[in-house]
Amino acid sequence: MTERPAQRTPNRQLAALIAEAGFSNAGLARRVDQLGLEHGLDLRYDKTSVTRWLRGQQPRGTTPALIAEVFTRRLGRRLTAQDLGLDACAPVYAGLEFAAGPDEAIDIVSGLWRKDSGSHAELRKIAFTPAGLVVPSRDWLIGRADDSVGRGETGVRRIPAQGRPAALKPPGAPSPLEQAAPPPRRNHTERNAGQRVTPGDIAALRSVGELFRALDHAYGGGHARQALVRYLEHEAEPMLRGTYGEQTGRRLFAAAADLTRLAGWTSYDIAAHGLAQRYFVQALRLAQAAGDRLYGAYVLVTMSRQAVYLGHGREAVQLARVAQQGVGSSAPSVVQAMLHAVEARGQGVLGEVRACTAALVRAERALESARPEDEVPYWARFFDEAQLADEFGHCHRDLQQYRAAAQHAERSLQLRAPGYARSRLFCRVVLASARLGLGELEQACQLGAEAAGQAAEMRSVRAVEYVRDFERRLEPYRDAAPVRGYRDRVAALG
Predict the structure, then answer these.
(1) How far is Cα of residue 35 from the mean position of the Cα atoms in its chain?
(2) Neighbouring-strand partners of residue 244
(3) Domain-by-domain residue ranges, the chain?
(4) Per-residue pLDDT for 490 more than 70?
(5) Which residue ranges are recorded for the region named Disordered (predicted)?
(6) Which of 101, 153, 366, 389 is the S-S candidate for 337 at Cβ 3.0 to 4.6 Å?
(7) CA-CA-CA-CA torsion sign (252, 255, 258, 263)
């Protein structure tokens, strides 16, 4: 006699949540597929799949966690697979979590470093998700520094810090990339050993940050990004898992936040946008552990800039305003100027002329009120007249106010130091676009060709995309002689 298969029990929990969320079966399937894409998964669920789940079939792999995340985002409360009547499974690796405490923060960020340093190509394909900005920025805004970050300092074994920074390359010396190359891979046991962290260790982290920042500005994020990630895995993680008191611990978390933000920035520059977003979220959490509210605001500024670049103006404005609210009026004038300027960029993307202009005026007034004796955080010192003129130029270009865009872009190029090569390239493209908008085709093509030549020397997807955006603007004039000359010059670059 043939045995009948076990009867499945209908999933009433899932049915109730579908009704509460207002999803159709097809709508839920579509959202699960979209969320899968954010994590580099090619899923093919449809309304029939959801019908099977409602009848009691258990989805495979990490799908239960994905379904739970879809409902979490929709309903605004944290739900697990079990809450949906589904079997528990390993959570989808995301990196968008805002950790409850410092130990969890270390686990999440070090997992991100290790996966990235292992050349997991799928990590760089993870999609950027605007919805992933809401919870971390909210938790940062309403949160406060962790009560304690120190770790016990008894019975420790000293692990020498390696990969000490060196100055930028003099003639005949090893390249900065060679200088910053990571030590041989440690095993898991050694990586978690009880290293006692010293002020010298933290100074080394800071110096390495300056080295990689200089490389990024001059040559693009792709030049040494992987070496930076490996440095974080092999040097920063053992320190975070080491032993240190409260004061040293805060400084250590601050240095780790800075390097993690930079890893995100270089990922953003090579168009690994989902990966960059995850680095920024974790940098924000590390900054909270450090008790550095101002640096947290700077991370939000960075997240806002990425949102601007990707065309998410609404989210960019929200992030800028969260940063403003989080630090209040006590922030140094230069920082205030930066916060208002990045809000203006978001308003420019939205085409909100009045709001954009008002934010630019606030930024200008804040920078004018700065005094030489003001104590300015190291990360904000780049925000000077050249940078503000650059922000004005971008905003006026986005608002199609081309004469003003050209004036500010020219001023920025006059003031900007040569070391900021990529920023100068961006500004030159803004100027080229403004000249084009003013009908000055020959000058626009000349500027565009110069920018294209500079982009060819960098490992920066953003630099290439700026040039491509200019070329799209040239399309209506494709048969004009200056445009044909531009194409010939760019083709000669290979």
Answers:
(1) 19
(2) 151
(3) 12-84, 100-149+174-291
(4) yes
(5) 150-197
(6) 366
(7) negative
